[in-house]
Specification:
Length: 71
């Protein structure tokens, strides 16, 4: 799962499981490689020129609700 934070402050959750079952993302099954994710402009990237289209990240993710702090 990727937790995404957008410039407008919205938080979304992207399920990577379907994607890492296909080429070229099979290598991301390695936890070591998966954790090397970096934000790059409007998407995320990994070593080896692996990335995900920003539209895919937005359209295939779900809003993440953040619980309000307890008072």
């Amino acid at each position: 799962m990727l937790e995404l934070t957008y410039a407008d402050g919205s938080l979304r959750l992207f399920d990577m499981k379907p994607l890492i079952a296909m080429k070229p993302w099979l290598a991301l099954r390695s936890e070591i490689l998966f954790k090397q994710v970096k934000a790059d402009s409007d998407t995320v990237i990994w070593p080896g020129e692996l990335d995900i289209a920003p539209e895919t990240l937005w359209l295939d993710s779900v809003p993440l609700s953040v619980a309000a702090p307890a008072h």
